Amino acid sequence: MSFTNVYKLLGDNLEEDPSGLLYCVLYDGNNIRGYELMSPEKTETIRIDNSTVEDVHYLFDLDAGDYVEQSREQRQFPDPNAISPVDAKISELNAACNAAILAGFTSNALGTDNTYDFDYDAQINLGGMLNAITADIVSGTVVWKASGIPQTHTIDQFKTVFAQGLSHKNTNIGKYWTLKGQVLSAETTEEINAIHW
């Protein structure tokens, strides 16, 4: 659909009186499809990056029957929904830290290296079992999954598993805080992007 007939409703000269409204006949080549009142000028704002926009100013050309670009102006206008490079990197590091913790850890409490689950449920269960041991509710041995297979652990072996799990968690959290400090100290986006888990 195109504007084939455009009439000024107010004002004598479009260039001298850009406040005048235009009355447009919408025509599809065969039939009139409607009418529209429109302003002779408009501005379109285009986002350039997270902190800059460009305003494109148009004026309606009666001869061309369409808007014609008149000027472009860039201005600072932070995107309220944008995430800063610092916040994005901290979020990335936080996710990497959580993933590393939840992936589990290795313990040699049974005399050889075994992997132990350390997802949220596993952490709760480990803590619950340690509380039961500490409260003398559980004594003797504990059957706990090591390398995917339920295996018998003495109380001391279980405490070693718990301690190594806690060390695994604290090591990753410490790494996160160190890297976060580097991000907060970085002075450029390139420095921030160079920081990896």
List its salient traits:
3-stranded antiparallel β-sheet, 10 strands, 2 domains, DUF4376, 34% strand, single chain, alpha+beta, 4 helices, 197 residues
Give a short overview.
The chain is of the alpha+beta class and 197 residues long.
Account of the 3D structure:
- The relative contact order is 0.10.
- The longest helix has about 30 residues, at about 155-185.
- The chain has 2 domains: about 1-75, no CATH class; about 85-195, no CATH class.
- It has helices at about 85-100, 120-135, 155-185, 190-195; strands spanning about 1-10, 20-25, 30-40, 40-45, 50-60, 65-75, 105, 115, 140-145, 150-155.
- Strands 1-2-3 form a 3-stranded antiparallel sheet, with no helix packed on it. Strands 4-5-6 form a 3-stranded antiparallel sheet, with no helix packed on it. Strands 7-8 form a two-stranded antiparallel sheet.
- Strand 5 and strand 6 form a beta hairpin.
- The protein is an alpha+beta fold.
- Residues about 1-20 have low confidence and may be disordered.
- The protein contains 4 helices and 10 strands.
- The two termini are about 55 Å apart.
- InterPro entries: DUF4376.
- This is DUF4376 domain-containing protein.
Describe the SSE topology.
Elements: E1 2-8, E2 22-27, E3 32-38, E4 41-47, E5 52-61, E6 66-76, H1 85-102, E7 105-107, E8 114-116, H2 120-134, E9 141-146, E10 149-154, H3 155-185, H4 189-193
Antiparallel strand pairs: 1-2, 2-3, 4-5, 5-6, 7-8, 9-10
Instruction: Tell me the strand order in the biggest sheet.
Output: 1-2-3
What class do helices, strands and sheet pairing give? alpha+beta
Tell me, rounded to a whole number, the average pLDDT.
Answer: 86
| Largest sheet composition | 3 strands, antiparallel
Q: Over all CA atoms, what is the radius of gyration?
A: 34 Å
Give the topology string: H per helix, E per strand: EEEEEEHEEHEEHH
Shape: elongated
Count of discrete alpha- or pi-helical segments spanning 4 or more residues: 4
Percent of residues in helices: 25-40%
- Low-pLDDT stretches: 1-18
Kindly, what is the distance between the CA atoms of the first and last residues, rounded to a whole number of angstroms?
54 Å
Pfam families: DUF4376 (PF14301)
InterPro entries: DUF4376 (IPR025484)
Protein name: DUF4376 domain-containing protein
